[in-house]
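TICKET #2291
ISSUE: user wants both folds in one file
ATTACHMENT 1:
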Amino acid sequence: MVVSRAFLFLPLSIAIAFTLSVLYAYGEDTAAPAIKTETPATAPPSPPVATENPAPSAQNSPMPASEIPLTPVYNPWGSIPVHRDPPSKIKPKPAPKKTPKPQATSKGTTKLPLILQEIQAKYVQAVTLTAEFKQVNEVIALGTKKNSSGIIMIKRPNKLRWETHQPDRNILVSDGRKFWFYTPPFDESEHGQLIERRSSEIQSRLANALLSGSFSAVADMKIKQGKGSTFELTPKKGSAGTVIKAHVEIDIDLKLIKKVILEHQGGNRSEISLSKIVLAQPMGDELFIFTPPPNTDVVTQ
């Protein structure tokens, strides 16, 4: 998005766990003592008493109850510490009930209000957009406001032509891979200047996405409806360059985007108003490639 030379490439402005506790039971490390009884000589010897837990081998012998610690120990099968109590005190616990996870309908994207879904569908079907724009940029540090106007052309999914006519002429063109920003010379004795940048190097394309109705292109954004036909959008921190909040004003009847306001860190503010909006106008791809005229200084960044 272009604001003017003073705002050249102003950064614009776009995912859970269950724990399982396992308790171990230990057997008693004691054997029943032998009981001596006097038996008549004619009586046969008593059979051995069967025990519920046969004596374990030395290798698998459990820890004596007196040596079992009662302090919390690490449970290798879960993140919850458990207490090892003597076997006689261990009570079986019912298996925890599993709560089903809610299924995300569209991971990483924002659930849009119905009217914004309808506008987005309309813009997607139209493919192209052209409109006249008026822009007001406010810089708090300098205490200044600057007005500019011109024509914007957008061709989905990522082509842009932004021509500023007033007060200073300049043009921003993108074919989705590169951005060209051209400033013509002030007079014949000077050279024009062209700055080329890769599209991936542009910190934020939030304004272009909103103006073209590409609301789903910006992930993790909180949306709430304000007064009338205005929506407030708060992007996830760091996902939209310096933009901390955006406002979108729509025409509910025509399902068109009329205005976008961007609030930046530090209090700076950009307001873009659209008029004479035309959708689905044929546009050739040559409009979104820029060839510099003679006597142009090219700067690659």
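ATTACHMENT 2:
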Amino acid sequence: MFPQKSSFPIGPRRRRFVLPRLAGQRWRAGFTLMETMVGAAIVAIFFAGLYATLFRSMQYLKAANVASNGTRALTTMAEQIRNSTWTQITDSTQIQGVISTCVPGPALGYVTETIDVTPSPIGSPVVSNYTASTMEVQRGTNGTISITKPGDGSLPSQTMVRVDLTVQWKSAFNGALNQRMMSLLVSQNGIQGQH
């Protein structure tokens, strides 16, 4: 039995694709050095653009994560205020204990937390000077808690106070100052029951 002939050329009859020959030149296969360098430059520009896009998106992702941590720190402070007694909220030395339990987390870096307690115009007797009766407690970027405004001592006699919570931090992305704020109204007798 004879072997069948193959439909594919075998041996020297196989032809390969080669670049056309110009007058007086030999056959050549492949690319010149200049063509290779142009191709490599195009690929390098593509990867540089891809790297820049990925780097920028990682910065935006980190900034969003830090903003989320700032919001989380603010809601933790609000929950601490909601769980505090009237005396803890209206006394400047006791509210330091509230702010010291609110740890913002390491992702925020240099953060400043502030609690402002002012008499609320709703349901409170008229206060002649809101600035004098305002109490402010702050935890600085180094972690120390200080009373920046001690108030005039009239807050415990009020029926309702407004508590303003602020968390500020510097953005690692562009160095801008970011902040989250929340205001709470706290009544001395809690929520008044409905009849």
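RESOLUTION: both attachments delivered.
EXTRA DETAIL ON ATTACHMENT 2: The chain has a mean pLDDT of 77.
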